[in-house]
Amino acid sequence: MLTLNAAIFASASAGALALAFGAAPLGVLLIGRRMSLVGDALSHAILPGAALAFLIAGADPWALTFGALTAGLVVAVLSSLLSRTQRLPEDASFAVLYLSALAVGVLILGRTADGEALHGLLFGDVKALDPAGLVFAAGAATATILALALFMRGFAAEAADPVFMRTTGVPGGALHALLMCLVALNLVAGFRAFGALMTVGLMMIPAAAARFWTRSFAGQIGAAVLLSTLASGAGLLAARAYTVEPGAAMVLCAAALFVISALFGPNRGLLQSLPGRAHLEG
């Protein structure tokens, strides 16, 4: 198990911060669009690209990044196009594509990767966050923030009523495809260090917890970024203290914050809905 020395801890913290600003806001939009499992689907979909890159170039970090990103973008765009034909529900199109992609990745890795390489691809390796990896993570976060600044109203409207968007002629399909590409980009930015599956946890759990603090999309995005940052910091400290997997520790801290939010959050938190409390507030 890797010990997080000062240099690795600092780079992991910077990568986690970039992930908080890039991935957590996308989680809010996915939940609003009732597509909470899309991130999980795309995390599996990037596996064949990474596996093929490993087969060709070995453990070269940029080859793995390029392969994973290409596979994620292909699945994101194909699923968006397939769902827009209205011949197959969106969740079904994702299921077909990501399960097929996952099967291809498993076949490739099963024949080419040793145990250590397989562990790195599935669960990440914080040593992979070299300066180039941090630049990539920062670039993914920057692209997400710019997209939100430019198209936030369209994203929110498409999430609230995609059928209305189609009938009015607003290019909701393009916004949807952009959202899926941003999700894939942030998953790839996080998978090398924290693992694709753990990156999904940092994308979706803080976003779900944010719903207990505020109702507006903007407020939920801010809360999700804050919660993701807190979970990442606490998780990395726990990983350093107890020598455990950083990605898993970060996700468990996010889950703990979700429980706290679900209990004490002012927006429909469980304790807010108790009969005695409601009577006192009335």
What does this structure look like?
With 282 residues, this protein is mainly alpha-helical. The protein has one domain (6-270): Orthogonal Bundle (ABC transporter involved in vitamin B12 uptake, BtuC), CATH 1.10.3470.10. It is built from 13 helices and no strands. Helix 1 (6-32) packs parallel to helix 7 (131-160) and helix 4 runs antiparallel to helix 9 (172-194). The longest helix has 30 residues, at 131-160. It is globular. The model has no long low-confidence stretch (mean pLDDT 83).
List the helices and strands and how they pair.
Blueprint (H helix, E strand, L loop, with lengths): L5 H27 L5 H8 L1 H11 L3 H24 L5 H23 L2 H9 L7 H30 L1 H6 L4 H23 L1 H15 L6 H26 L3 H19 L10 H7 L1
Helix pairs in contact: 1-7, 1-9, 1-10, 1-11, 2-5, 2-10, 3-4, 3-5, 4-5, 4-9, 6-9, 7-9, 9-10, 10-11, 10-12, 11-12
Alpha carbon gap, first and last residue: 54 Å
Number of helices: 13
The overall pLDDT, averaged over residues, is 83
Total beta strand runs: 0
Shape: globular
Rg to the nearest angstrom?
A: 19 Å
Number of domains: 1
Largest sheet, described in full? none
> What would CATH call the architecture?
Orthogonal Bundle
As residue ranges, the low-confidence spans are none
State the oligomer.
single chain
What is the CATH fold-level name?
Answer: ABC transporter involved in vitamin B12 uptake, BtuC
CATH superfamily: ABC transporter involved in vitamin B12 uptake, BtuC
In percent, how helical is the residue content?
over 70%
Structural class: mainly alpha
